[in-house]
Amino acid sequence: MVKRVVVGAHYGLRDWLVQRVTAALMAVYTLLFVLILAGARPTNYAAWTALFNGQAMKLATFLFLVSLFLHAWVGMRDILMDYVKPLSLRLTLEVVVAALLVAWAGWAIQILWSVR
Amino acid sequence: MTKTRPKYLDPLRIRLPIPGLISILHRISGLGLFLFLPLLLWLFQSSLTSPDSYVRYRGAFANPLVKLILIGLLWAFLHHLLAGLRFLALDLHYGTDLPTARATSWAVLVTTIVLTAVLGAWLW
């Protein structure tokens, strides 16, 4: 039987860490992406899609977006925990947020791997 | 345990110190970015799918209302990024004394607005 301690200062540590690790990953991607944009200066469709042609760029962008969705989950849950007090409403909104984020992750895969 | 401490949490009467303002703007900008993610994903998809959809994306981008929203989101992104980097530094115990915390708060606020104005003017 798994005994979980649901109180105590350590309980939110994983979420706290996820929020910061994903933030760092997104900051690095943002910096690299700005440098790539500044180098390539894409001004038409062909040049823009060429940026996302390679598997490395697809995977890096996917990693950025997954980081974004995990980061948004922690942040949105913090907001809901702070301001939405009725449990049923908070749980409902948490489910809506989580469902949206998973759906958007699927959408992101579709967008990225449609580029040829 | 019942606490009987008085609470004054009327948001219209609280005068936030500058680090507090940065903190609540970090939260508001994060919420805004979350709410507009479908628009951003749709624009990203349109820009990449086909030459026709790219033209639609350029059209949407040229719409003044969309531009206004995108500049708002640009501010939100820059504020969230810079304030977030400041929070990461605070987590590592850099800049936690009050004068430094106030100075970096002002730096985040001003840099974000200047960068948004410069990039916004360039994009517009």
Give structural attributes.
heterodimer; A: 116 residues; mainly alpha; 3 helical TM bundles of succinate and fumarate reductases; 4 helices; 0% strand; elongated; B: 124 residues
Structure description:
- The complex is a heterodimer of chains A (116) and B (124).
- Chain A is built from four helices and no strands.
- Chain A is an all-alpha fold and 116 residues long.
- Chain B starts with 17 loop residues before the first helix and ends with a helix.
- In chain B, helix 1 (18-35) runs parallel beside helix 5 (98-123), helix 2 (37-49) crosses helix 3 (51-62) and helix 4 (64-91) runs antiparallel to helix 5 (98-123).
- Chain B has a domain at 18-34 and 64-123: 3 helical TM bundles of succinate and fumarate reductases (Up-down Bundle).
- Chain B is built from five helices and no strands.
- By secondary structure, chain B is an all-alpha fold.
- The mean pLDDT of chain B is 93.
- The interface between A and B is medium-sized, with 22 and 20 residues.
